[in-house]
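subagent[fold] <- orchestrator: predict structure for attached chain, return tokens only, no commentary.
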Amino acid sequence: MNATLLRCSIIAALGGLLFGFDTAVISGTTDHLREVFDLEGFGLGFTVASALIGTIFGALFAGYPADRIGRRNTLIWIAFFYFVSAVGSAVAWDWYSFLIFRWLGGLGVGASSVVAPMYIAEISPPKYRGRLVAITQFNIVLGILAAYMSNYGVALMSYGAIEWRVMFGIEALPAAAFFLLMFATPRSPRWLVAQGRSAAAAKVLELVGAADVPRELREIEESLAETAESAKERLLQWKYHRPVSLAVAIATFNQLSGINALMYYAPHIFRMAGAGTDSSLAQAVIVGCTNLVFTMAALLVIDKFGRRKLMVAGSIGYIVSLAATAAAFYAFGTDFTPLGSMVVLASLMVFIASHAFGQGAVIWVYLSEIFPNRVRAQGQALGSFTHWVFAALISWTFPVIAEISGGHTFAFYSSMMVLQLIWVLKVMPETKGVALEEIQKRLSGT
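subagent[fold] -> orchestrator:
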């Protein structure tokens, strides 16, 4: 694999690391936020979801700057948003300022979920595309683990009243690194062709080690032949109904698993199952490690086994683990024994492993593949928008419904994963090893 291609993919995927860190860092601060801002279940849920509301807007509108100023420049702005959000959340002077800075970070997360995999997909040859785009997911889970470990480390250092501020402020460091490193990457060759800069695109393709630059450039130029019309192309029309429905379905199922409830409330869930505060933070680190290990495993086999097989394996794991978690909460209620606590920890480790090996590894790769070039930015924005709408709903409502019944909560998530398994087996097409232009012909007939 070309060294420049790998370097550029890793740098762009740092947007995923910040995505993961920003997603998980708040999990260690929920008790502090509840106390400092005098929040109950609904208010806490809204506070946690404030960043996710930002992700909805970031995902919805990221396609516009990605097409106007380019994938690389958009990622530079995303890094800036992450930095301002981290510093602002750490120094927030009241609840409203905290919400605003968290919302700004959410804009970065939502936009990053669209643009980072898009950029990597557009500089990668088909044989490596799955693995390289999946680096984004690897970095997301690395960022989640880093946040859990950072929270645990900060808690051990006993910063007292400013502990939660330190947890948020640490994110400024990787955000600054991401901002600076993005200036060392080339622009997307497909974006350059869309701007009528084929000579520059050819240089980038050569730089990233394209096997046959003239052929690849010709294929890109053919798929973007009607550039003027493409700029006005509407995503929501019948010829794109298949990729649109696939994107909406995979993004919806991703969140109906309850994954973001675990990411945002992992220590809280473990405390519900009888763990102490320090123990709950340590168990969150265990969950993060499991996530990382199984994401690495998926990264190694996604281009060998294909997207569908990973989704099938993950769906089965989801169903079993969530059902076991629900059964534990039904059996022990609010009076967990050490055995009951271990059942919940083991079940959620299986759950996070299933997510990492299945949906987590597949979703961003799949969204970057299934749309034609001329509407790829819009399509990924739609998929990411759907993902974050449901993420916000799950995260906002979890503290409320979990107080009613932990068993009902996890039983619902398990039943949704039964529907996902049926969808994968009956509807989801395989994209392994297929050129983007060929996928366009198969799914859109264009």
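orchestrator: received. Logging for downstream: The two ends are 31 Å apart (CA to CA). The mean pLDDT is 88.
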